[in-house]
Each structure stands twice: as C-alpha cells, then as structure tokens.
Write a structure and sequence with these properties.
Blueprint: H1 26-45, H2 47-58, H3 62-65, H4 75-100, H5 117-142, H6 146-176, H7 180-210, H8 215-240
Helix pairs in contact: 1-4, 1-6, 2-6, 4-5, 4-6, 4-7, 5-6, 5-8, 6-7
C-alpha cells in the first residue's frame, strides 16, 4: 500500500557467513612459523637421533638393533620431538577441520585468531598421551613386566618421531597454501598418519607374538590404551561442540 503495486516482500534466507577463517588469523600464522623453526631445530640439531628412530620404525633390521630403550635420545631431544609433534597435530587439526569440516567461517574472535584453537588441540593430545603412558606404567608394575612396557613406550616414541619428521612438511604446506594445494597437502598428512598407525599395528602385533604374549592381550592393548582415550575425547568433543 505504501510502496506501490510493484513492491514485494523479500523472501527470508539464510544469513551470509561472516568472519574470516581461523587460519587467516595472525595467531595461527605465528604458530606456523614456530612449527617451522622447531622442525628446523629438530632436523639440524637432533637429526641423527631422528634418523635412528625412523630406521627403528621402517628398517627391516630395526627390531633387532633397537631392542633396548638405551638407544633412545635424551630428555631434551624427546621434549623437542614432543613439542614439534604436538604443534604439528594442532595446526593440522585446525586446518583440516577448516577445509573439510563445518566450522570454516567460525568468527576468529571466538578462537583468538587461532591462538586458542591450536593450543586446545595440543593440550587435549598431551592429556591423552599422558593417560596412555600412566596406564602402561601401572600395568607394567602390576604384571611385573616393566621392561616390556619400557620397550613398548620406546617404540611408540619412535613412531611419533617418524610421523613428526615426515608429516610436518605436509602440514606446513597446507597451512601456507590454499585451494587445491591445501587439500592435497592435508590429504598427504592424513595418508602419512594412517600409514604410521597401520605400520605400528602390524609391528606391535609381531612384537607381541615374538615376546610370547597372547593375541587377546594385544587386542586389549589396542582397544584400551590406543583407541579408547581418543574415542572418549572424540565423543565428548562431538557432544559439546557449539556448532
């Protein structure tokens, strides 16, 4: 009546996404630079230790040469591997969820421009790894198999070091690129992770058999120690996610 016969009421539609992706924030980019520096420090300062641990994971003769954790690096190198690996996983998780998830256009202010999203993933992974280590050491003391548990922890650390060395370049490429190349780099990191997990499952099975340990205990170990903590974390995250 007011605007004339040619006027119309617009159809209400979904609001346009607002905000910028988390990975465009300054915080995420600075953490990416920090990962690059940690990776260079790991390669040039502890490259010998990392290469030896990778041979223990991938080499055919690694099982016989690395039966004792005395060949493992010291606490400083282990801390460097842990810091680089956790930061790699945090950056990769945020980038993958942005590329393939549902919260690509989450406002960057909610995550502090990336400062909170990546450390949150890192702390969650660190908590899961701490629970796994505590469970293994408790089981070792209760079953009087401390040496066996120590060897198993050494193998898990070697696997994590190998995954860090081979997966970090893909994460850096994914974090610094966009479009198709980001998807390719993220897919490469996922492939590296799956390959390491599959290799560890097979190697741990053979190692349990070599130590005359029941296959049922190996299945219980994979379910209770390796899978269940991550499953509980994933279920809790999916039920409490705000979007």
């Amino acid at each position: 009546d007011i605007y004339g016969p040619v006027s119309f009421v617009p159809v209400a539609g979904a609001p346009e996404p607002c905000g910028i992706p988390v990975t465009f924030g300054v915080g995420y980019q600075m953490l990416t630079v920090l990962l690059l520096l940690l990776y260079l420090l790991l390669v040039f300062r502890a490259g010998g230790h990392a290469a030896r641990m990778m041979r223990a994971v991938w080499g055919r003769g690694g099982e016989g040469k690395h039966r004792h954790d005395g060949a493992m690096p010291g606490a400083e190198v282990q801390a460097l591997i842990l810091a680089c690996g956790l930061l790699m996983c945090g950056l990769a998780a945020v980038k993958i969820f942005e590329l393939w998830g549902e919260w690509r256009w989450l406002p960057s202010s909610l995550w502090g421009g990336g400062w909170l999203a990546v450390p949150a993933v890192m702390l969650a992974l660190l908590a899961v790894m701490g629970v796994q280590s505590a469970v293994l050491h408790v089981v070792g003391k209760l079953t009087f198999s401390t040496e066996f548990i120590r060897m198993l922890c050494a193998k898990r650390l070697s696997l994590f070091a190998s995954m860090t060395v081979t997966g970090t370049p893909a994460v850096l490429l994914a974090a610094l690129s966009g479009g198709v190349w980001a998807d390719v780099a993220a897919g490469l990191f996922v492939a590296v992770t799956v390959a390491h997990l599959a290799l560890y499952a097979g190697r741990s099975f053979l190692w349990f058999i070599d130590r005359k340990v029941s296959i049922l205990l190996w299945i219980l170990y994979l379910c209770a120690v390796e899978a269940m903590p991550f499953g509980i974390f994933a279920v809790g995250l999916s039920r409490s996610w705000p979007v």
